[in-house]
Amino acid sequence: MKKNTLKILLILLIPQIFYSCRNEDLFTASIFNTTDTLDVKSATYQFDLWLRNSYLIPYNLDFRYKMQDVSSDMDYNLVPASYDKSQQIAKLVKYLWFDAYGAVAGPEFLKENGPKIIQLIGSPAYNPISGTILLGTAEGGIKVTLYRVNDIDPTNVPQMNEFYFKTMHHEFAHILHQKKNYPVEFNQISKGLYNPLGWQDRSDSEAASLGFVSPYAGSQIREDFVEVIANYLVKSDADWNNILLMASKPGVKNKVTLPDDGVDGKAIILQKLDMATKWLKDSWNIDIHQLRTEIMTRETHINEILN
Amino acid sequence: MKMKMKKIFNIIFCLVILLLSSCVMEQPDLFTGSPAERLNQALKNDKDSLQHAGNGWAMEYFATTGSAGYTLLVKFNPSGQAVIAGKSELTGNLLVTDSCLYQIIGDNGPVLTFNSYNKVLNAFSDPVNPDGYGLEGDYEFDVLKTTTNQIVVKGKKRGTVIVMNKIPATVTWKQYFDNLDAMNAFLFTGSTNSLNLVSGTDTLIATKGSTHIFRLTKPGEDPVTTGKDAPFIITESGLRLQKADTIKTNSFQNFKLSADKQILVCSDNGENIRLVGQNPALFFLSNSTFIWNFAFEKPLGSKFQLLYTKLLTNCQSILGEKFSNLYFRYNAVRNSYTLSFKSGKYTGYYDFNRINLGSNKVKFEYMGTADVNGTFYLGKIDGFNELLQYVGQPFIVSADNGLNLNTIKFTSESDSAISFYVFQ
């Protein structure tokens, strides 16, 4: 009898513990409120409505263009993104990132694997001591922060590729490999050549000759991996081939040819690209070449998107 | 076993009672509404207050605790858009206006955030020049106090207290900035003199006023190695220090220009602390390296006016030259204080001594020597001999603006019709 009483009490007690003092559902399908009524009198109503329909509802993604210092890195001095530039980049991100992946990997891919927050910052995040700037961050596979938004020039595709779209693909590749790790063999390819503190002192050709697609790729293994993907996706054929050409020659720094480093940079870069290609295909069923073609094609229609 | 089960039962029973009672162990509400409701009401009240000022607010902005102040005019629209105007060296001294978004958000309390880029406001926070830092100003502010005519906020990162005063409906923004420019020009444009901060028998020397960051030192002390900075902002009525300070036990922060425009007076707490200019005669005598130009566009004594006209006429008629300038300048080679002139493309000078007669009086004493051109014009042009006589006498030195000694006046002690102004 007492055993039964004990069981009943436990059954009562356990729900009570979880039940606490409230009886509301704590979780819904979305982590953001998708039902708030937007203020039609707000100066940002049309844009907010577009963001809701383009990001929040389909991707459960909070596109934060209004600066919240508390959610940015307080160690940096930053400024907010301008409202006009925010609208431009919101449309470009949708078109060149979300829709491009959607066309190649299927509409559900980014719903399942994409970030849940994109945050815009107007200025770069400067590291005065190292003389470098931060262009983007990906935090925990959830949040992507894009910096330097106020400098975007929609008429300059190479500039946008270098400072924004490459950053997007770079940060998204981080999110993907945080979910499914890249091949451990990748760690061995350029072992001993990474320079976490002095990467910014390498010239483009010096980095390429060592088998890195960019100086930043030579900072750490994981940056190397995502830089291969990001650069391959946004570089034109001419620019990509130029990297391979630089990689096949000795590095040049300050107009001085550096001693032979003994590394076949071109072969190394192509080996890394092959590994990334296979990983994207096997782990995510994404054909990187098809995705690149999709992005390149879309880049020719940017004006139509913004007008 | 039975005893053990009983103990377990008792413990669980007590736990259940404790948990069930946890929801009713509340104190009676001391405030109406939940904390969230009260915060929401506070946010709404603050937003209403911001929007209430139809002509906007004059925001007395200090980027950091060590920075000079800049006035920004801000209007908060109900749509969530803020319009901000500024006029300073950061805007090329042009009146620049830009719009951005703003919100009152909840944090530990209401926070006013300008959360999209505004080229006027964010000029203070853009991390360039030097890269990574810039001027390090805030664009998010804790709301400290809200009244009908004034809102006080505090920068979230830098902690500077920023006052926003309601702009009267009758003043346009351009007029407001013009008034500030006029006050700044009156107090500091071209000014090189220090001010004395006087409280009873105590005095501090306030230098570097034209930078809008006073350097306060005790008399006789070196301002570089001692003293402290006191950033301030120009206001329509005078100036306001970023932080209240004290001299002995008397505090000071807000200074208003006196009715006669000769001093700035602080009476924040009923004190009578004053910012006053230096003695004009001593200032003139103590800065021998300055060049003092005669200000012919300002009123001249009647006799000096006649002399000036004579010099203009005779230089033109006799030599075909325009008599264009007259100035005092120390000549280190000749160890004299020269009265120099320019006529056409020629310059010349006459050697004088300056003598301090005390009590605001200075005497210029002609030494009887001149350079070649000075000698030539003295012999050729009627009026130069008279000029040496007019200048070579005791003068009372004064200043129309006692706070800014950029321009000072010399009036003959014996004949008030002989007077002139000089400026740096």
Features of this protein?
heterodimer, A: alpha/beta, four-stranded mixed β-sheet, two-stranded antiparallel ribbon, 12 helices, globular, disordered N terminus, B: alpha+beta, eight-stranded antiparallel β-barrel, 24 strands, 23% helix, 38% strand
Quick description:
The complex is a heterodimer of chains A (307) and B (424). Chain A has 307 residues and is α/β, with parallel strands linked by helices.
What is the CA-based Rg of chain B, rounded?
Answer: 32 Å
- Cα distance spanning the termini of chain B: 105 Å
Find the biggest chain interface: A-B, 42 and 43 residues
Number of strands of chain B: 24
Low-confidence stretches of chain B: 21-25
Distance separating the two termini of chain A: 77 Å
Percent helix among the residues of chain A? 40-55%
Task: Profile the largest sheet of chain A.
Answer: 4 strands, mixed
Sequence of secondary-structure elements of chain A = HHEHHEEEEEHHHHHEEHHH
User: Rg of chain A from C-alpha positions?
Assistant: 23 Å
Q: Structural class given helices, strands, pairing of chain B? A: alpha+beta
Q: Residue share in helices of chain B?
A: 10-25%
Q: How many beta-strand elements of chain A?
A: 8
- Which overall shape of chain A is indicated by the principal axes computed on the Cα atoms? globular
How big a fraction of the residues of chain B is strand? 35-45%
Mean pLDDT of chain B: 91
Mean of residue pLDDT values of chain A: 86
What's the story with the biggest beta sheet of chain B? 8 strands, antiparallel, barrel
How many helical stretches of chain B? 7
